[in-house]
Amino acid sequence: MDRNHLKRQVDFMKRSLLDQGYLDEQFIQLEELQDDDNPNFVEEIVTLFFNDSARLLQNIEQALVSGPIDFAKLDNYMHQFKGSSSSIGAKRVKNECTRFKEYCTAGNAEGCFRTFVQVKQEHAILRTKLESYFQACISFIWQDKLDHLGLQEVKLDDYMDEGGSLIMDLYYKYDEAHMIK
Amino acid sequence: MGSKTQQSQTQQHHSVAVRLNEQMGCKRGFIQAIRDWLLTLLLIWIVVMVFLSMTVYNRIDADNRVRRKDLLVSMCDQRARMLQDQFSVSVNHVHALAILVSTFHYYKNPSAIDQETFAEYTARTAFERPLLSGVAYAQRVMDSDRENFERQHGWTIKTMEREPSPVRDEYAPVIFSQESLSYLASLDMMSGEEDRENILRARATGKAVLTSPFRLLGSHHLGVVLTFPVYKSKLSASATVPERIESTAGYVGGAFDVESLVENLLGQLAANQAILVNVYDITNSSDPLAMYGHQCQDVDMSHFHESKLDFGDPFRKHQMICRYHEKAPMSWAALTTAFFTFVIGLLVGYILYTAASHIAKVEDDFHEMQELKVRAEAADVAKSQFLATVSHEIRTPMNGILGMLALLLDTELSSTQRDYAQTAQACGKALIALINEVLDRAKIEARKLELEAVPFDLRSILDDVLSLFSEKSRNKGIELAAFVSDKVPEIVMGDPGRFRQIITNLVGNSVKFTERGHIFVEVHLAEQEKATVNAEADTCLNGGSDGGVFKAENCLNGGSDGGVFKAETCLNGGSGGGVFKTETFLNGGSDGGVFLCGGHQFKTLSGCEVADERNCWDTFKHLIADEEFRSDASHNMLNTNEASEDVTLMVSVEDTGIGIPLSAQDRVFMPFMQADSSTSRNYGGTGIGLSISKCLVELMGGQISFISRPQVGSTFSFTAIFGRCKKNAYNDKKKANSEDLPSGFRGLKAIVVDEKPVRAAVTKYHLNRLGILVKVASSIKIAVAMCGKNGSLTSRNFQPDLILVEKDIWVSGEEGGLNFQLLDRKQNGHVFSLPKMILLATNISNAEFDKAKAAGFSDTVIMKPLRASMVAACLQQVLGIGKKRQQGKDMPNGTPFLQSLLCGKKILVVDDNMVNRRVAAGALKKFGADVDCAESGKAALTLLQLPHKFDACFMDIQMPEMDGFEATRRIRLMESKANEQMNGGAIDEGANRKREWHVPILAMTADVIHATYEECLKCGMDGYVSKPFEEENLYQAVAKFFKAKPMSAS
């Protein structure tokens, strides 16, 4: 797993996310905003999105199940959710949100339920996809850093646990190398 | 939302159509109102016409009938009268005969009449009684006298049946008879019932009496017998009946052959055939006896006329009945009249019907057309609007494609793959450019295109455009140059993007179609241009004072050769040519002559012929001269000019390309039209650019036109109106917008060596922009002379720091030699003040470059097209001054520029959505802004409590509790209060600081539609940006107010 390979992998993942319509160009713009001053910008935003959306989804679910449905309230929640989705470029989620809002406007409770399931589903899919994408990004970034410090022989795979997350050893290694440098 | 808008559009169009129809409806009137009844009306009309013609027929027929009846009456009466007359004549004769008999038979004694006499007399007077078949006289014989009588006469009295008469009271045997009635002799008239009655009546009345008609014995014709009494004595008129009977002596009788009588009579009359006459004895009115006439079946029974006949017998009544033989013939006249009336009526009706239905149909068609037209127009508008609206939708995926391609190119690719990807990217870029063009057009058509009014430096825009094409023009070996008159203000207000678009389009076209020569962009003030052209015309016309002076000089200097040339030129080119040449001689002496000798050299930028000679040196010279004069002398002039708000610029782009075929010249500005199909094959392009340029120019309040000569070149020129910039805002804007030209060259002196005055002027223009003083020499010799003179004699004169030499001059061998000389002298003389020699070239080969270096030129060759910034960079390199140049100013648009705009600005982002807030903040931070966040309108209000340090605020519109509009309204309210206080209170302080509180507020909205925008403006926002941020959009929004409101850029 050298650097170029990782880079290709990251590109491929991003490409397929875009191709499959999970993301749109807004996500690319977000990535463009990320620079050395702000290295984890995208991840930060995405995490923010998932935290925020979890709350919103819960709100919506509650509004859906409890008593008579208040469509205006639902629409309001969903508007926020849609806004955040479009901000991170979560295209499919956004589309489902739009559908949901349409059902809301039409006052179609059954449609709302159905699309809500879809929204949740898309949301969950996106979450896993983005997680693995960021994982790959981090791998790439770390490999890049390692290469940069002349630690080519250190393979990132060695420092990954079964879940694919980095283990602390790598940080030590990195700090060490940095110090030397 | 889009669909909603569209719907309302359609409704609008629909309502327009309806209104139109209503309007038409007023005029519709009669025909449309009755159109459904047309057929019924036609039928009614036909029925009416049938009745009418029948009436006509009846009328005429009745007329005819009356006339016929009258005719019948008159004819009948006439016949009756005639018959009566004839009859009475006959009766009179019989009367006369009766008198004769009484006179000669009774009064005379002995009787003067016997049978013979009577027969003869009657025979001879028979002509007088044509109606009587004969007359006879019967004597009254009483029974007592019978024997006596019989004896006397020698025969017995016989009855009608020729038998001896039985005994009666009296007898009336015929004693005299006309030959024709000889068979009556000795017959007793009293024996016939008719005759007897007659006789009795006759002697009682003393008048002629008639029998009823009966068959006459001889002829079997119907006849009547007329009987007259003969009295023995003369009786008075008042004699009583017994007296009369007593004195009766005999009776004269005659048989009227009524049949032949009437036959005769009728035969004498015209129109005998036409009528049928019947004569009746109607004494017994219940049983009329026919006297004459046939009872034909086929007579016209409808008409008859009865005329009374008076045959002189009061006891008998007769009448004549006339009938037409035939029924009244069909009255053809009436029939045809009626028929024609009907036909005419029918035709008129039909014509009216057809006309009406035709009108109705035409009106229907018209309305249909109208509706179709409205619909077509609506569709057109809708199309444009659709295109304008979907711009975003079209561009987004394209941007995606391009972005992906860019990403793809970043990856490791084999050379083939890279080539493919690059091709795809190039195609994609071309496509998006085309889409942009089409959308531009659509926007213009939909009237959605609004021009900005921001200050910009058009000189730097021209430089940008030139730099865009420098590569291409260099490859083709075309000279590309721009010149902006000094009179044109440095900063003008207008739409730089659109201006740039026009120039790019025109220059792009020129580059595309030009293979040799030059492309020259000029900008002047329109008034100036006009004035100069007028002046030029004057000169040409009168051979004015200027020209005259030049010419004289020319003769002096140029000697005989010059004279010959001049004559030639004058012959060929007229006075204009003369002006050219004199100039040349002044500058270059014999060299100029050489150029003119070629005959193909023109005083243009590259020496090639151009379509529009206005840009030749003669005009150009005037422009420059004008400028120098003005800038030197009259500030008044400038002031007056600047007093006006607007400035009209005249921009022309001149090329020496293939030109536009004459046949195609009139459709150059039509969209999607190229000169011909082969053009697009050879040169590509859609031909939409010029039409867009035209629209843009018109939006800028100007006009575009061109002069083109095939195989010579084209000159496109347009005027555009820009606003003048206020002096005080000048510096700020300059800082913000125009690229900074280094000021390190101010005061340097340079000599430009170029034999082509236009090109020299362009070079001079660029150097002037850098603050360098420039003199032009047309050859190196002159340049050397200038330097030498200055250097050796008077140092106060021109001592150049730079000598810029055009490549063509230096390339000719002779000049190269001179060059060395110059250098030598320089090196020998004043080493310290050695001017730098710089070569100007459109393209240069390595060999030439080496040679140039050897000849003493500096390493840096200034490559055409000239641009002030590029020249500055080259000069820096050569002179080694002002090395530090600011970075990130090259592109006025895009990230670096945005960065420069936003860098250090304190910006508040208000959005309830955490993610959105974070993204917006991230984006703005990326451009160097200092970002604060607020999560609600209320929070924003607290943060924006005056005084605050924020330079701008980005506000989400849809927020719970207090939306963006409301928050903005409150902020504005707050600000206006503060402003009032400030203005009311400390004016001085206010003037020192910001004039007013007004923090720019930009709406952030996901759906960018016009209505929202208007709403934004209404509640006091300054603009909007689409959410998520797009760079271009953000730039436009931010640039507008950061430039337009420089005071907030503290």
TrEMBL record, chain A:
GO terms for molecular function: histidine phosphotransfer kinase activity; protein histidine kinase binding. Pfam families: Hpt (PF01627). Keywords: Cytokinin signaling pathway, Phosphoprotein, Two-component regulatory system. Residues 38-133 form the HPt domain. It is found in: Cytoplasm, Cytosol; Nucleus. The keyword Repeat does not apply. One of its GO terms (biological process) is phosphorelay signal transduction system. One of its GO terms (cellular component) is nucleus. The modification Phosphohistidine is found at residue 79. InterPro entries: AHP1-5/YPD1, HPT_dom_sf, Sig_transdc_His_kin_Hpt_dom. Histidine-containing phosphotransfer domain (HPt) contains an active histidine that mediates the phosphotransfer. Functions as a two-component phosphorelay mediators between cytokinin sensor histidine kinases and response regulators (B-type ARRs). Plays an important role in propagating cytokinin signal transduction. This is Histidine-containing phosphotransfer protein. It comes from Quercus lobata.
Automatic annotation (TrEMBL), chain B:
InterPro entries: 2C_system_His_kinase, CHASE_dom, CHASE_sf, CheY-like_superfamily, HATPase_C_sf, HATPase_dom, His_kinase_dom, HisK_dim/P_dom. GO terms for molecular function: cytokinin receptor activity; phosphorelay sensor kinase activity; protein histidine kinase binding. The chain crosses the membrane at residues 37-57, 332-353. Keywords: Endoplasmic reticulum, Kinase, Membrane, Phosphoprotein, Receptor, Transferase, Transmembrane, Transmembrane helix. One of its GO terms (cellular component) is endoplasmic reticulum membrane. Its main location: endoplasmic reticulum. It is a multi-pass membrane protein. Residues 749-879, 906-1042 form the Response regulatory domain. The modification 4-aspartylphosphate is found at residue 956. One of its GO terms (biological process) is negative regulation of iron ion transport. It is found in: Endoplasmic reticulum membrane. Its EC number is 2.7.13.3. Residues 109-321 form the CHASE domain. Residues 389-724 form the Histidine kinase domain. The keyword Transit peptide does not apply. It catalyses: ATP + protein L-histidine = ADP + protein N-phospho-L-histidine. The keyword ATP-binding does not apply. It is an enzyme of class 2 (transferase). This is histidine kinase. It comes from Quercus lobata (Valley oak). The gene is LOC115981664.
